[in-house]
Write a structure and sequence with these properties.
Blueprint lengths: L4 H22 L3 H4 L2 H14 L7 H23 L4 H4 L4 H25 L8 H12 L2 H11 L6 H21 L4 H8 L5 H12 L9 H24 L8 H16 L10 H17 L10 H26 L3 H12 L5 H8 L4 H28 L1
Helix pairs in contact: 1-3, 1-4, 1-14, 3-9, 3-14, 4-8, 4-12, 4-13, 4-14, 6-7, 6-15, 6-16, 6-18, 7-8, 7-9, 7-18, 8-13, 8-18, 9-15, 12-13, 16-17, 16-18, 17-18
Length: 386
């Protein structure tokens, strides 16, 4: 039984590394439906349930220090790839599709929570706010909202459960409907001829960027991100607080703003920010899961049902927007998956329509990182007053 901080942290990071290694080397089909980061959460949660480590003062202090310190750094690094100047090159119709997907997802959360509210335990709105951050942006946004709203670690089990099961089925559905694109585009009267031009333009914009990661890149990015984290925590503690805007909320928003601004500076051209942000993300997810317990997941079926309800409302509303604005299936599908799935899956769906369209999927997913935290907090604010 682990009682000290170092073995506790070392085991979690080693276990995360082992799962990522297995995912990359064995190429098992199970990882297509249950990514390594989801497996990390549930296995760490299982080990916590079995009592492999105890919540001693040492372990609790290490958990808080690492999680609070790494979270703003991770957000900053994650957003360094989100250059707003490139995103604007997507054009008005692509941006319309993306924000239509974002808004319909937010509406789906609000309507679903209003319907199922009586079946959930008190305070469950925080878990749904965290999930909305994931389904607008990505896992990093979900973790950011978890920190900003102080979502109980136990409730994050429900969030990861919906994020895994409902998301996997949604990806399969969107890949299945690719063959119906001509019929859908005919129904919406969409003009999809500009897609290839946009894809080729975005692909050309990234040519010539250095991709090999060197030591100097990593040390500069790591040092800068930790400094941003420290400053964000300090400034967040000085700003005025309310019931919704705690110091942790301000910290997340400051780190987000710093990342978006620095994405338009030479710092963003240094390769390796994605590797470092993923390292921090897996560490934070492992830490959160290590405080949860399977015995507390007593309402799993109703949460999964609510997840499908959110997706159903989102799909219907997005189809109506497509009809009104003459959007094609590619734009709607990739916009939806860029929000719900992020960088891991949006480019895959884009590639199923054509390789030249992959950059569109990547940029839409990166745009989700920018709006995910703010969008999730906005959803949380609405849910808290329902």
């Amino acid at each position: 039984m682990i009682q000290n901080a170092l073995p506790y942290v070392a085991f979690l990071i080693f276990f995360a590394g082992l799962l990522v290694f297995l995912e990359k080397t064995l190429k098992l089909k199970v990882f297509k439906y249950v990514p390594a980061i989801v497996m990390l959460y549930f296995f760490a949660m299982l080990l916590s349930t079995l009592g492999v480590w105890q919540k001693t003062p040492q372990i609790t202090a290490a958990y808080k220090a690492l999680k609070d310190g790494l979270l703003p750094a991770m957000i900053f690094l994650m957003l360094l790839r989100c250059d707003l100047r490139k995103i604007f090159k997507l054009g008005p119709r692509m941006l319309l599709g993306f924000f239509a997907a974002t808004i319909t997802i937010m509406i789906g959360f609000i309507v679903t929570f209003a319907i199922f509210k009586g079946a959930f335990e008190p305070g469950s709105w925080k878990a749904f706010a965290a999930l909305s951050g994931s389904w607008i942006g990505g896992t990093g946004n979900m973790v950011a909202i978890q920190g900003a709203l102080d979502v109980p670690d136990a409730n994050m089990g429900y969030t990861l459960l919906i994020d895994s099961i409902n998301y996997s089925i949604w990806v399969m559905f969107l890949l299945w409907v690719v063959s119906f694109a001509p019929a859908f585009n005919k129904w919406t009267k969409a003009n999809s001829k500009v897609l290839d031009e946009v894809g080729q333009k975005l692909g050309a914009a990234t040519e010539g960027n250095r991709t090999n990661v060197e030591f100097v890149d990593l040390i500069v990015l790591l040092g800068t991100s930790l400094l941003v984290s420290a400053l964000s925590i300090w400034l967040g503690g000085m700003l005025p607080k309310s019931v919704f805007f705690q110091s942790s909320t301000w910290t997340v928003l400051i780190a987000t703003a710093a990342g978006v601004i620095c994405a338009m500076t030479p710092l963003a051209k240094l390769p390796g920010s994605n590797h470092l942000s993923n390292l921090m993300l897996y560490t934070i997810v492992g830490l959160i899961a290590s405080r949860a317990n399977f015995a507390e997941l007593t309402q799993a079926p109703i949460y999964i049902l609510a997840g499908f309800c959110i997706l159903g409302i989102h799909a219907i509303l997005l189809a109506l927007v497509a009809k009104l604005c003459k959007l094609d299936l590619f734009t709607c599908g990739v916009a939806s998956l860029a929000n719900i799935g992020g960088v891991a899956s949006a480019p895959i769906l884009a590639a199923s329509y054509g390789e030249a369209l992959v950059p569109i999927g990547v940029l839409m997913a990166l745009m989700g990182y920018i709006v995910g935290t703010g969008g999730g907090l906005l959803v949380g604010k609405v849910l808290s007053i329902l």
